[in-house]
Write a structure and sequence with these properties.
170 residues; alpha+beta; five-stranded antiparallel sheet; 6 helices; 5 strands; 24% strand
Length: 170
């Protein structure tokens, strides 16, 4: 399933701690990486099947990377159920803070200063990914401003999911 150049240049998939997988898909009891069975994308670092106690696949967790403010990176997990609904979004690594948002959008201080612990992340839970690909992410998730890097990365993941897991534009 790989193009030869993708296979030769592909780094090993990157593992992520269980807590970040669970934060992205709280209903799952176990996670199994399946990225070696799917096409490679440089923005996606790993893909896990999210399974219940009886090993039934409930959905998928993507470990992805986005560009943050000032060329830094934001690594995150995002869970998508079999019905294409976001189950959770968890920041794994980021040096971004909400004080950075002051420079780009109105910020009222309500989220605290630690971006990775923000309640803002919860606003993506329950959103259908098809809706996200057809509408601006900010309006769909009910947020004021999302960095271009996160928007592009989330769009990459949702389009990847539609093409490679759902099998097309569902």
């Amino acid at each position: 399933r790989y193009h030869l150049e993708d296979y030769l240049d592909r780094p090993d998939s990157v593992d992520v701690e269980l807590t970040h997988l669970q934060a992205a898909f709280p209903q799952a009891a176990q996670f199994e990486t399946i990225y070696d069975q799917l096409p490679y994308d440089t923005k996606v670092r790993n893909i896990y099947e999210a399974k219940d106690e009886s090993s039934e696949v409930l959905g998928y967790v993507y470990y992805a990377v986005a560009s943050g403010v000032f060329s830094s990176t934001i690594e995150y997990t995002i869970g998508i159920s079999n019905d294409a609904t976001i189950q959770g979004l968890s920041i794994v690594v980021s040096n971004q803070t909400w004080s950075d948002a002051n420079k780009y959008a109105e910020y009222d201080g309500s989220y605290g200063l630690v971006f990775s612990e923000s309640t803002w992340l919860n606003q993506f839970t329950g959103v259908d990914i098809v809706t996200m690909t057809d509408n601006p992410i900010d309006s769909v998730a009910g947020v004021t401003y999302t960095t271009t890097g996160m928007i592009n990365s989330i769009m990459t993941v949702t389009l990847y999911h539609q093409s490679n897991i759902l099998g097309g534009d569902n």
